[in-house]
Predict the structure.
Amino acid sequence: MVTAGGDNGSARELRRGAKVNLAAYLVRIAHPPLMIAVTRTYGAAPWGEVAIGLGLSTVLLRMGAFGLDRSMLYWVARHAASGVVPGLGAAIKWVGVFSVFLTAAFLTGLQTAYGDEPRAEVWSILVLGFVPLAVSEMLLQACTGLRRLEVQLIVRDLIGAFAFLLFGLALHWAGYQSTGLAWAYVLSQWLGLAVAAFYFERLFRGVRKSVPGQRGIPAELRRYALPLWPSEVLNASFARVGELVVGVYAGTAAAGVYDVVRQIGNTVRSIRGSFDGIVTSVVASLRTDRHDTAVDEQLSYATLLVLTVQTPVALALALFADWLIPLFGSDFYISSAAVAVLCTASVVGGATSMAAMVINGLGRSRVYLGYVGASFVVQLVLLITLTPPYGVDGAVWAVSVGSVVQGALAVVLQRHVTGRIGLNRQAATGILRMLVAVLAGIAVAMMASEALKGWFASAEVAEITGRVLGYLVFLAIHLPLFMQVYRAKRDVNETEAA
């Protein structure tokens, strides 16, 4: 039985975040068909050009935010209850103004380096979305500091993702074949900023964003943000360096193929990623500098919430990758084995690296910097080693191994900081039950696929049917745990209320 403990208010927030996450995923069922339509419309090379440009834009975002965006999780969680968040307004203004200067500098550099080359035009358009991206990120992180996870999901995962693809299709049909994707990104970022600003004003209506007599960003916030600045630049580089390396060694078309596969992996990893902010906020709000039982309970419960959703998504992608990848078009090819490895690594690395959010929530931003720096170096070395001889497949394997190493490092550092791993017995039991369900599903899929070849004239139909049966067996074992985890905290809270 999955039990509950710790701070029940925090538990309710985690479970609420999980519900929002699930709702967003149900809506995002429409995202893959749209993405398939866009990739088939534009092709691998144009998609690769935009993917490389977006990778650079993501790194620019972290450079221009000075760590203040991620600091909002910790800072708002610490101060919002008092009705005053010192320096919040100043931090948002600072990031907004600096992003304008950074955009101008990047445009000048592009003109100097590439002149009238086609990629310069695409990247020059993309960078126009940097200002709304930077400002909206500050607003979203501040809202997440209030544990309002749905704002980030609505703006980033729904509006940002869907608007980008829909604008891209519309602009291509309107005649913007070469720059349609770039302009679509810019339009989606400005739309996202408008929605983020609406939610920010609504949620912070009764909160003062500065202290009378205090100007600028408080010294305490600067001290916390400073180590986060390089760590977030490295974190962004860790996430997007693959496109750059593949682009250099294999060309822009290969970078486009890699980006599609990366997004498939991100479908799994983003389930955990959407919990990063709320876990940091919950730990920070406990106002403890040590790793006590309350933190253990929240980390254990959050890990189970994430894994019970991640695992079925990852297994489905791995089992049916052979039929999923060709849908993106003839330009997009990669082995199903690489996709399966990436999905597995996204689950393992994603769940274990949540320990880093505990370190961040405890205010140990310098330790977090070391963690991200080491992770980036490992992944960069793997990418440079494996991409030249093996192309996109090599890059996917490098990212997969890097993800697992990153997660293992997070657990080691958490133990170093806190003296314990932080997962309770209930979490360990739940993880073991999920592993049994996965192994049973894979075993049935393999045996059924082989046995059914004598029943069907087509070997492919037999293979698909066998994998469907295997997945159903997995679900039959997994769903009771899923329901148990999602009901555990409610049972405790209802009992206490009674």
In short: Residues 142 and 177 are 37 Å apart (CA to CA).
